[in-house]
């Protein structure tokens, strides 16, 4: 339908290492959610599926290569859920965030300019400041990391 407003679809990945840690990225200070820790990923482009977007985003953001077959859907979060409170200053819009887990990739993850990467251990996770949608997803990410790291 013309003018129909759809939710913004975002795909993200929890890369896990052999120590059961999860790679997270601190957003540049001058962007939406600046300074918060989140999963690498980004918006789906028109006509793009979530796995294709994931492969593209990790190449662009981290300079690594993942195969769709190594990515496992872990869950999703949407900001129309009760209890999700937007970060002050962030635009009000419906977002659906799809999280995949992945324990195999090629290359060494490198942060894009202005961003910071951290391999996060489960005990540190609680103290990280994250966007509201990432809080429930982080639990799924660490369960996956424990089982697959
Ligand atoms: N990548 C990512 N985005 C998240 C997470 N949690 C969360 O609320 N978001 C939101 C922030 C943004 O509204 C949206 C993704 O935006 P983005 O700026 O990363 O997307 P993009 O890479 O396509 O960036 P751009 O082309 O707009 O610069 O999803 C998360 O864990 N990872």
From TrEMBL:
GO terms for molecular function: 8-oxo-7,8-dihydrodeoxyguanosine triphosphate pyrophosphatase activity; 8-oxo-7,8-dihydroguanosine triphosphate pyrophosphatase activity; 8-oxo-dGDP phosphatase activity; 8-oxo-GDP phosphatase activity; metal ion binding. PROSITE patterns: NUDIX. Its cofactor is Mg(2+). It is an enzyme of class 3 (hydrolase). The keyword Transcription does not apply. GO terms for biological process: DNA repair; DNA replication. Residues 5-143 form the Nudix hydrolase domain. Keywords: DNA damage, DNA repair, DNA replication, Hydrolase, Magnesium, Metal-binding, Mutator protein. Its EC number is 3.6.1.55. This is 8-oxo-dGTP diphosphatase. It comes from Novosphingobium nitrogenifigens DSM 19370. The lineage of its organism: Bacteria, Pseudomonadati, Pseudomonadota, Alphaproteobacteria, Sphingomonadales.
């Amino acid at each position: 339908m013309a003018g129909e407003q759809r939710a913004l679809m975002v795909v993200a990945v929890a890369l896990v290492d052999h120590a059961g840690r999860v790679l997270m990225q601190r957003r540049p200070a001058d962007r939406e959610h600046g300074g918060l820790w989140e999963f690498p990923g980004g918006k789906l482009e028109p006509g793009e599926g979530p796995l294709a977007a994931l492969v593209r985003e990790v190449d662009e953001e981290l300079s690594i290569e993942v195969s769709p077959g190594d990515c496992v859907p872990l869950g999703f979060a949407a900001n129309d859920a009760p209890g999700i409170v937007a970060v002050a200053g962030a635009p009000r819009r419906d977002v659906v965030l799809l999280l995949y887990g992945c324990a195999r990739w090629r290359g060494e993850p490198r942060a894009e300019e202005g961003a910071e990467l951290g391999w996060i251990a489960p005990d540190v996770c609680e103290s990280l400041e994250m966007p509201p949608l990432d809080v429930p997803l982080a639990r799924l990410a660490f369960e996956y990391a424990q089982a697959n790291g």
